[in-house]
Every structure is written in C-alpha cells, then in structure tokens.
Design a protein that fits this description.
Blueprint lengths: L1 H5 L7 H10 L6 H34 L12 H15 L8 H21 L7 H25 L3 H12 L11 H16 L1 H9 L1 H6 L4 H23 L5 H13 L3 H25 L8 H24 L4
Helix pairs in contact: 3-8, 3-9, 3-11, 3-12, 3-13, 4-5, 4-6, 4-7, 4-11, 5-6, 5-11, 8-11, 8-13, 12-13, 13-14
Length: 319
Amino acid sequence: MVAGLALGPVRIAPGRVLDVLLAGPGGRGALASIVWDVRMPRVLLGAVVGAGLAVSGAVLQALVRNALADPFLLGASSGASAGAVLVIVLGVGAGTAAGLPLAAFAGSLAALVAVYALARRGGTMTTGRLILAGVAVQYVLSALTSLVLVLAAHPDQLRSVLFWTLGGLGGARWDELALPAAALLASTAVLVTLARPLDLLLAGEEGARTLGLDTGRFRAAVFVLASLVIGVLVACSGAIGFVGLMVPHAARMVVGAGHRALLPVCALAGAVFLSLADLLARTAAAPGEIPVGVVTALAGGPFFLWMLRRSTRSEGVTG
C-alpha cells in the first residue's frame, strides 16, 4: 500500500509518504493532496475489492466443490456488470446511492443461480459442465452488455459501460468506500462463523447431510450472501476477474483448507494482490493507464489453463 501511494506519474519517496501519513489528512501542500485525495481512496478501494473477491472465490469453491469456481468464471461478475450497465443506460435508480449496488447484486445472484442450475442438471456436477455453464452464461451476459453498449446514445454512457466491462479503480472516492468496506467486514465475519459448515460441504455433501447440515438451505443462503458482496464490489470497481480463482489456492498452500484460517488469509492476500495489480496498471504504461482487469486477466489466464489441465487429468477425459 505504501508503494501504491508512492508510485505514479508523480513519484514520492517512501519516507515522504510516511511523513504525509503521520501528519494526517488535514496536511497542506501538493504531496498531501496527492496522497490523501487521489491515491489513498484508490489504494483502499483496491484492497477492499481484492479482499472481497478472494473471500467470495474461496466460498464459491466450497459451495460447488470445484477448484475452478470463481466470481468471474461463474458469471457473477458479468451478471453484476450487466445489472449495473442496465441501470446506467436506462437511468432507473442510477441517481440513488443504492441503485447501482442493488442492480449489480440482482445480476450477480441471477447469474450464479443460472450457472449452478445448469451445471447440476442430472444431479451431478463435473468441472467440464461447470465451466461450460459459466461460459454460456457469460456469453449471454456479454451479448446483453454489448447490445446495451450499441444502443447507448451518450458518450458518457459508453465510457461508463466500458468501465464496467474492463474493471478499474480510477474513480475511487472517499464517499464511496464505506459501503464496500462494510460489506467486506460484515460478510467475512459471518462467513468465518460458518467455517465448519463450509468445511463439511467441501468434504462431501452426503457427509454434511449425515452430520445434520441442511445443504440446500445453507448453500442458498451463502449464495445470496456471496452475490451481495460481489454485487457491491462490482458496483464500485467493475468486473475484475481471476482474483477469486488464484488467491484462494495460494492461501491454501499456506494455511490449508480449513475456512476459519483460510478466509482471513484470503482477505489479506487478495488485498495485497489487487493492490499490486493496480500499481502495475498505473505504472506500466505511464502516463497512460491499463485497466486493472486486463492485468489480472493476463495473470489469471495461464493459471486457469494450468488448473483446468490438472483438474481434467484428475477427473479423466470424460470429466
């Protein structure tokens, strides 16, 4: 985070950044304005979004019992983007503080439910079926978003739609941090208390039922909670992919699969990962800027292919 505050079009020595931070947000001068008004909201939003996407990815992987589950790959991020884009273009509720988050939540939940229903058809779920369902839903949502993009009449709407499809943290403001931060803290606290049911579900549905867990209700409730978090985050940052896929796997290498330790570590690692990705997005093509979703996709694409190949080997050709 200090690197994120120090580096950019105007480079500030880390020592000077610490001096500005210690002086507080009321400090005067150009450096204080750059650190507190421009870079700090962006760095904090990146940390919150990265943490939330990582936690959501770990939970979705437990709910569907598949290592390739991810808010982006399962269509949740695309659904949230589609909902937000519709609100932007149609103008219904866009002027209210809750308009975009509610639309993004509705789109995220609808996409997750559709993917899960398609993948579970016949009572079983394989990696191949889950990926095909996620890709199919993503194509439909992408087509819907493209249609909205074509029909959008105003240049401002076009720029907003592109923001939702590529993801970015450039529009971060202090007054927009409260909602995603509250959603992250509340959801992570709730999910940590549900660590044991998540562990049971990850170990096997039949075993979880034997031990008294109502898997249907539990899965539905956690799907809604994950969709709410994803919707709020996407409403602030646009669709940023692969954070929820890569970070949980890295965290499991450190603390294992138990969710009581895994979820807090995912939150910390996700915050670090997206902060670094945003730093790269801001500095790699300076004075221009690369959408942070492009950076995470460049890192996550090869990782996804490696995971897919490993999962296919473990399940066999027919999986």
